[in-house]
Amino acid sequence: MLAGCATVGQPAAGGKAPTASAPAADDASAAQDAANADGPLPNEELTDELVLRFLVGDIALQRGQPTLSAQTWNDLARRTHDPRVAKRATEVAIGAGQLNLAMDSANQWINASPNAIAPQQVMLSLLLRANRLDEAKPHLEALLKSKPQDAPSFFLRMHTLWDKNTDRNAAAKLTEDVTAPYLNLPEAHFARAVAYANTNRVPDAVKEVDAADALRPGWEPAVLYRVQLMSDRPSQERVDFLRSALRKNPDSLAIRNALARELVINKQVKDALDEYNGILKIQPDNLEALVGSGLVSLELRDFETAQLHLNAAVQKSPRTTNNLRIYLGQIAEIRGQNQDAIAWYQSVEGDMHDAATERLIRLYAHSGQPEKAIDLIHENVALTTEQQTRQTLLESQVWREVKNYDKAWQVLTDAINKDPKNADLLYERSLIADLQHNVPAAEADLHKYLELQPDNAQGLNALGYTLANRTDRFDEANGYLEKANTLDPNNPVIMDSLGWLRYKQNRLAEARDLLTRAYKAMPDPEVGAHLAATLYKMGEKSDAHKVMAEAQKLDPDNESVIAIGQEIGKP
To answer: Is residue 471 within 8 Å of residue 480, measured between CB atoms?
Structure first.
């Protein structure tokens, strides 16, 4: 019934009338035929005039004159009082986009077949489309009365009848009216809850969801919608509610999945993983649990499990899991499976395509294939200034990856000569200059960058770190870094810079505190090396070597990792 209410046939290509759909199974088809029976047909003589009008109606449609055809068929319906003609007139008017004419033809169809369901469905759909909800009410009530067995499923989906132009208050009133005789059904209370929530009557919506739960304790739709209505509540409160609901309905995988999602939001990732894995023991191909378990395992750096479950999710539903392919590429890259990573990145489509391409570019560079990376960068012509800047930055990063800093410098310099006030290019070139140990050049570019963006925390941090790391101008570095920290507090990159400056100033307790917080928030190899150096200098050599070993695993080729590793030696 809902399908009939929610959809109306659309015109086919070329202005032709819609064609009938293929018949369903015999028993379903017979039941539908009985429900849509036209009843007694009029004994109308087929005169020459009527034949001519029928021909005009069809020929006008074939010649791309749908409005004329709709008007002709509507006139035929009035003349014949035949439900078959009225049905055809309704279809043609809908295809022609003549809403008022379609409603008039549908009304004639109802008058000609008062006991049939199909014309009521079509009329209801047309009235809903026209936002004439008061007029839709009797048709909706008639449909529910004719098929009371469909009322529960209809109420569960009733909210799908409204579109963005529907008067939500009128929809809530209509929902109240049509559900009034059915308040013994939890689905009726669910329909009311959604209608009230759509008019910002959240307390009323909560009452209706609770009423549905009282009629059917632990009922999934009520539980899951109740959680949505708690969106402004603390995440732990939602977790507790779902745990309670799961005790009432322990076999509900939907509630268990919802609980796992809330645990992730509440940063209880290990508990979330237990829930997802519990679902997979019961239903090994549960798509949401496969995705959830895979992503949580990835966060916990269990790459084998992450790869296994995300790959299974993609195999199960390739059309809906496109975004997972980039994660599978990253996992394969981390595990040294470069060919698999390349294949995954190349298979990403849609919104994630550009991000996957950038990962592929970096993978080519990291694996010693810079030419392939450069070719991929320039595969598409950069038409706008923004696109040209993006390509230049990517090309610089490729040459930086293979430690060809002179090439990276030249690429950036050529671009800056054409666009001397491009802040992004100046910032990137300052990083290359720093890697070349060319402090004056790095400092000059960062000053130009800050002239363009005076209160940019990133630029202030870069200048402060360069001075702290490459010079003994610690007071000057401190000014830039303190200002950056004020602008962007708790940023682990800035905390690392300040921590390293404190190390250089021999303020070791402060350095350890800052670097520990930075490393916890961002397990970066350079941050780890800075923390290891600080711990070693404080005499905590065992902890220093442990952190250093972690940093070396993350990136053994990092300049700071190599230098500090040589300084503190092996355990």
So the answer is: no
The answer to the question of residue 441 being in a domain is no
Q: Tell me the residue range of the domain where 493 lies.
A: 486-570
**Res 44: pLDDT:** 67
> Residue 239: pLDDT above 90?
yes
CA pair distance 461, 469, nearest whole angstrom: 12
The candidate with the shortest Cα–Cα distance to 200, out of 238, 239, 231, 240, is 231
Q: Is the pLDDT of residue 464 over 60?
A: yes
Q: How far apart are CA 330 and CA 204, in angstroms?
A: 46
- Angle of helix 525-537 versus helix 541-554 axis, rounded to 10: 170
Residue 91 pLDDT: 83
**Is the pLDDT at 36 greater than 60, yes or no?**
no
**Domain contains 547:** yes
Specify the pLDDT at position 562.
Answer: 92
Residue 506 lies in a domain: yes
Q: Are 395 and 415 in contact (CB under 8 A)?
A: no
Instruction: Tell me if residue 218 falls in helix, strand or coil.
Output: coil
Retrieve residue 512's tokens: 């350890």
* Element of type H or E holding 418: helix 405-418
**Joined tokens for residue 361:** 């570019």
User: What tens digit of pLDDT does each residue of 150-177 get?
Assistant: 889 889 888 877 777 778 888 898 899 9
Give φ, ψ of 24 to 5 degrees: -85, -165
Do 370 and 364 form a contact (C-beta atoms < 8 A)?
yes
**Structural domains of the chain, count:** 1
> Are 428 and 410 spatial neighbours (Cβ–Cβ below 8 Å)?
no
Cα–Cα distance between 249 and 247 in angstroms, integer? 6
Model's pTM, two decimal places?
0.61
| C-beta of residue 511 within 8 angstroms of C-beta of residue 543 | no
Q: Name every residue whose Cβ is closer than 8 Å to that of residue 489 and which is 6 or more positions away in sequence.
A: none
Alpha-carbon torsion angle 544, 548, 549, 554, nearest 10? 150
CATH of the domain at 541: 1.25.40.10
Q: How confident is the model at residue 27 (pLDDT cuts 50, 70, 90)?
A: very low
d(CA 92, CA 271) in angstroms, rounded, equals 58
Lowest mean pLDDT among 72-76, 243-247, 386-390, 547-551: 72-76
How does DSSP classify residue 15?
Answer: G
Segment 477-482 shows an average pLDDT of: 96
pLDDT in tens, 303-331: 999 999 999 999 999 988 888 999 999 99
Q: How far is CA 487 from the centre of its chain?
A: 31
Q: Domain for residue 170, yes or no? A: no
